[in-house]
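Narrative of activities, Objective 1.

The group set out to show that a structural description can be obtained from nothing but a protein's sequence at a throughput compatible with the screening campaign. Below is one input-output pair from the validation batch, recorded exactly as produced.
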Amino acid sequence: MDSILKIKNLSTQFNSDGQSVIAVDNISFDLYQGEAIGIVGESGSGKSAAALSIIRLLPNQGQITSGEIYFTNNAQPIDLLSLSENSMRDYRGKEISMIFQDPMTSLNPVFTCGSQVSEAMRLHLKLNAASAKEKTLKLFADAKMNEPLRIYNSFPHQISGGQKQRVMIAMAMSCNPSILIADEPTTSLDVTVQAKILELMNELRSTNRMSMIFISHDLGLVAEIADRILVMHHGKIVEQGITKEIFLNPKHPYTIGLISCRPPLNKRLRRLPVINDFLNIEKAEKDETSNIISESEAKVRAKSISENPIILSVKNLSVQFNHKRNFLSREDQTINAVDKVSFELREGETLGLVGESGCGKTTLGKAILKLIKSASGEVIYMGRNMMHLEKEDMRIMRRNIQIIFQDPYSSLNPRLTIGYAIMEPMKVHLLYFNDRERRELTLELLSKVGLPADSFNRYPHQFSGGERQRICIARALSLNPKLIVCDECVSSLDVSVQAQVLNLLKQLQDEFKLTYIFISHDLSVVKHMSDRIAVMKNGKIVEIIAAELINSSSSSEYTKNLISSIPKGMQKV
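Output recorded for this entry:
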């Protein structure tokens, strides 16, 4: 079988501040007609750089230093690297299309979704406006959009994340490309939307005989869609093979680590494996059995927690949002984002909060901290109703209740060193006598979260995503809180860094006797972290169940649907 895309000895480097970093290091592979290849690896492994090199969309500081890229489609092979930029535009979007990772930033906010998809067809296929609109509406229907015309006339901010990603898929498919490159296309989506997107991509690939390169940090997810897998580490392909063979018999320690880092849904572990554990494979295998939490152990912990005092009681809490149907309308629409939610949380317990995007998880977490206004209900912390506290009293109360936000990139002030960012809450709450004592505690906290002392004077942009999340954890701990709300705090991290942060949160819980509300759309992560799990849908809690019983004893069809939506490859790992 002839390849439609041939990559030979491709190398790409980035130049910044007088330094050169090799992002793609002499990789070679073939992609065949109708085949799907998965490229997996951690952040910084070179996955996205390889994809951007193929379509020559590298940023200004990036350059291809060597190699060849041949594209063949019913004609002689074309060396894409030898084409002028104008000639390359004839291939980019038409023959080779790409879905980028973040649908929030990939669409132009000042144009409607329909006009953006139509534009590609008018440019490459020379369609008139009416024909381009007609085909766009069909593409939206094929992408399982319930209201294609509404989506066509909507601006990106008016539709959900899952709908934005479907618009991106429709745009990528609009010119019937021979090759589709999908770069982390489902990372920000919940499991049910993710399952639908994967099903859609498989269906479109089968219908159009399209070849695909699917990029992800999650091997289990790639297993759902890829025929072959390439594993990248430090810019190199360290292992490749048929998907089933990679799962059944991974040979490289890095591949074994990637498979093992994700929390399993069929058992609970004391500690998640991390990549470095698999530098010594024998040790990892030896420790596997003792790392599993037995059913009896789980019952002992549950009994112990049930005897602890109640630290938080939420009673009939409701949050409503009002917004106009459009900017000309005076009629408001009321949405019950949180609808009469009640639960209790005991000292030292972790309550997981899980559900699809838009179910009210994050809104509930913010309402508990009074970061948004509640319509009704009570939040009683240590016997005090926080709904009745004045502003100054609430500020003092927040010493005891902290939050770790989802995005470690926007959670830190880029103008403050991380040392000052951690010290700042201590100064606001007048803790300790002087900055010298605060600095000593900050250095101690940095050590607790696994960061070196010289991090103190560095700025947020000098750290990776996982390191920034560790900094946010240190900042949350700086006030010695009793309760921490973890709002999707690992959803933006790759599986190996995610495992490190989850292990850290568990370790700190044991050390500081912390209580967590752990919010996530990822049921396997929530199960690993939680004692009990509250499942939310449409602003309501549909059930609260012990974490170890979520697979076997759930009474809610909605919960069962969440579990069934997890890709089978993910359940395998």
